[in-house]
Amino acid sequence: MKRHLFPLCLILLLLLAGCQSREVNNTTSVLGLGVDWVDNQIETSVQMTKPVPPEQAGQETPFVTVSTRGATLSEAARQIFLSIPRQTIWAHSSTLFLGDKLVQRDLSLIMDLLARNVEVRKSSLVFITQGFSTGEIMQSQTPLEPYSCLGIRDLLQAQEKQLGIFVPVKLGEFIYRLSTPGIDPLVPQVTLEKQGNKMTPTLKGTAAFRGQKMVGSLNEDETRGYRWMQAGTIEGGMFIIPSPIDPQKKVTLELIRSRSKTKATVVDQKIKMQIEIRAEGNFYEQNSTGAVLTPENIKIMEELASREISRQCNASIAQAQSLGSDIFGWGRQVEAAFPKTWMQVASRWNEVFSEVEADVQVKFSIRRTYLTDSSFVFR
Amino acid sequence: MRYLPNKKDNLPANNTEEIISQPLEADIEANRSKLEALLEYCSDVVFREFVIGGQSPIRCLLLYFDGLVQRKILDDNIIKSLLLDIRMTNDPGRELNQADPLTAVEQKIINVAELKRISTFHEVIRYISSGDTVLLIDGCNQALVAGTRGWDSRNVVTPENELVIYGPKEGFIENLRSNTALIRRRLKSSNFKIESMVIGKITQTDVVLCYIDNIAPPQLVDEVRKRLQMIDIDAVLDSNYIQELIMEHKSTIFSQAEQTEKPDRAAAHLLEGRICILVDGSPMALVLPVSFPRYWISPEDYYIHYIPASLFRMGRFLVFLMALTLPALYVAVISYHQEMVPTALYLTIAASRQGVPFPSFIEALLLELTFEMLREAGLRLPRAVGPAVSIVGALIIGDAAVRAGLVSTPMVVVVAFTGIASFVTPSYNAGIIIRTARFAFLAAAALLGFLGIMIVFILMLIRMVSLSSFGMPYLSPIAPLNTRDITDVLVRRPWFKMRERPYQEGMKNQVRQNTAGKEQGN
Q1: Are B346 and A51 inside 8 Å of each other by CB?
Q2: What pTM was computed for the model?
C-alpha cells in the first residue's frame, strides 16, 4: 500500500490544479483596450472578436466594441462583463488607446492599473487619440484589415518600414519613460479622416508628455527629427531635397540606415548636447530629367540631404523645448555623464531642458541607387 | 440424452501419458498398437505397412502425417528404395537378415539426406508432427526418421509491414528453416551460430537463438539461453510470446526487443553483437537487446548516402516528437496558453471553433479514438469492403462532422497530421508507443496545459531511463552518454567512419574496419 501512496498523491495533486481552463468556445479575445475621459467619468472601450465561421466571413464586422463608464478604470472595465456573455482573454490584446482628453487631464487616473495588472500586456502598442474618443476610433474600420485595432497597429508598423515617420511605443516603454527622470514619453497619435464616405483611422502627429500629462504634439516633420536622433540604428523612410541641377525640381532619397550618437557636455555650468548623425541612403527618384548622378552632384546632394536632416532635427528640438518635454532623454545622458551637474538640475529639469543648446552634425552619404543604369531620357 | 460411451472412456486416463514416455519395443505389432492408441482420432496420420526383402521378409511400418511430408521424397527415396531397389541387389534380403536390418536400411537403402535414429514414442510423435517420416522395422527397438518435411507455405516475399525503397526486399516467412537460411546467406561464417531448442508443451515449437560467436557478449547469450530454457508454456505461436516471457521489465509499454521481418535488418543487428530469436511459425524475428533511440533508425538509412539519410533521420525524430505531443500542444494552447500562437492564427482557430459543443479535450479524444477505430478497422476489413469504408470514414470524419459543427477543422487537421506521423517511425512498435503515450499527453494537457505536458514528458523520461533491455540501458547511447555511438543516433554516421561497433557491455570484438582510416588518407 505504501508503495502506491506516492503516485496516488501525485495523481491527486493533478486534480487539485488551480488553473482554470478557458476554452475558446466560451471566451472572446480582446484585441484592444481604450481608456478615455467622458462626462467626468472614465470610459473604457474594449474591442473583442466576434468569431464568425469562415463561410460567413465578410458579411459583417468581425468585432464588437463595447464602451462602459465608471468612476475608476476597474469599475468601468467591470461594467463590460455585465453586457458580454463571455469570458475575455487578454492574451492577444496588442493595442492600447488613450483618449486625448484623458491624457491631457491626468495620467495618474489610470496608470496604476495599466502598469501593474497582469492582464494588460506590456508589449501592447500605445496610441493617443486626436479629436475623437477612443470608442469612436475603435468602432471605425480600417481598409483591408477586418479588425480595426490590429489594422491601426499594422498601419504603424508598415509606415515605419516604408516612410519612417512615427515610432511605435510599447506600453512597457511608455511606463519606463513616465517613471524615469530625465526622459519623457512620445506616443503616436491616431485620428479619423474621411475617405470616401467612411471615416478611417489615420496616424497624425505625436503626443509629447511632461510629468503626468500630455502637453502637446509634434507634427510629421518634427517626429522625423526625433526619429533621426534616436539612439541605435533606424532604417527605411524617404525624404525630399532640391535637385542639384535645377533648384525648382526635387530629388527623393531613401534612407538605408542611420545611426546617431548623443553626447552631453557641460561648459561653465551650461549643458550642451552634441548630436552626431551618420546616415546612408540611396537615390530614389527625381522629378526632372538630366544626369543627376555625377560625382559632383552626389556631393551636393549629400550636403543638401545633411542640411535637410539637421533642419528636421532642429525643428524637433525646438518643439520639444517649447513644450518642455524631454522626449530625447537628454536628462538621462546628462545624468550618466555628469552626475553632479544632474543632481543640481534634476528637480527643475524641464525648465533647464528648454534652455539646453543642441548642436546637430549630420553626415549623409549616397552609396548606390538600386535603379537601372542611367536616368530616363525623352526622345 | 447421454452420449454413447466412448472407446477412449474405457481406457485409463493416463494411458497415453504412460505410453509416450516408454521406449520403443522390438516387436512391431506392439509398437503399432501403442502408436494407434496414441494417435487415435488423428485422421491425418498414415500407417503404411509393408514387407521388405525377398526370401525372409521383414515387416516394416511407415508413419507420417499426411500433408506435412513431401510425397515425392517419400515415394521415390523411401518406399521405392525399400520395395524395389532392394530386390535388384544380388542378394535380396539376406543381408538384411544377417546384420542388423536397421543399420543396413539406414546406410544402404534409404536415400534421403536427413536420417537419424530415435528410440522413444515421444520422439516418434514429435518428428512425425514436424513432417518427418518414421520407419519402424520389426525386430528393432529403434526407428529411423527421414527428413521429409515439406508443406504448403508462403514463398519468401517482400515484407508487408517494413517497406523500404532501397536495400534488400526479402522478408521472413513462417518457415523457420527458410528464415535461418535467409540470415545464413548473409553471414557466411562458422561463427554465426544457430542454437536450437523446443518450447511449448503442445506446440513443440522450434525456437532458435542466433548470434555471432566472436562478437556477441557471451554472458548475454548465456542469459538469453537461460531465460529461454526457463519458459514453461503450453504454446508458442508467435515470437511475441517469447518476448513477453523473457523481458525483465514486463509492465511497460516500452518494448525492450525489436521485432523485424527483414533478414537484412536481423543480420545487421547480429553484426552489432545483438541476439536474434526466430520462432517457427512466426515471420517476426526478435532482436535484443535494443535501446529506445533504435526506434527512429530505419534499415534503409544504411543503404543510402549518409547525408540524406541523416536528414531523413532528423526529420523522423521531429515527426516522432510531434506525433507524440501535437494534439496535446493544440489542446493546451486552446485551453490555457492562448498567447502562445500568433494573433492571426489564434483568431482563425477561434473562428473555426465557434459552435463546437465540446471542449477541445473531448473533441481531440473523440477524433483520436475515431482515427484509431478507422485504423483498426482498416487492418481487418475484407479487401472488397475496404474502399467503401474508407470513403465513408473520410466523408464522415473529414467533412460531415465539421459541417455539422461537431468538431472543428483545425482539430481534424491536427489529428490527421498526428495519425499519419505515428506511422513515420520505421518500427511498428514505436508507433504503438506513440499512440498510447499520446493519450497521456492529451489528458495532462487538458488538466494542466504545458505544465502537464512537461510533467508527463519527464515521467516518461524517468520511466525510460529506469528501463534496461538485457542489461543495456534503454536510452543508450544518449543516457548514459556514449560520445562515439551518439553520432549514429540523430545523424547517420558514414560507413567510412564506422570503424567500430556500437558499444555493448562485454562485447568481444569492437573493430569493424581495421584499415579504414589509413585508406582514407590515400
Answers
A1: no
A2: 0.81
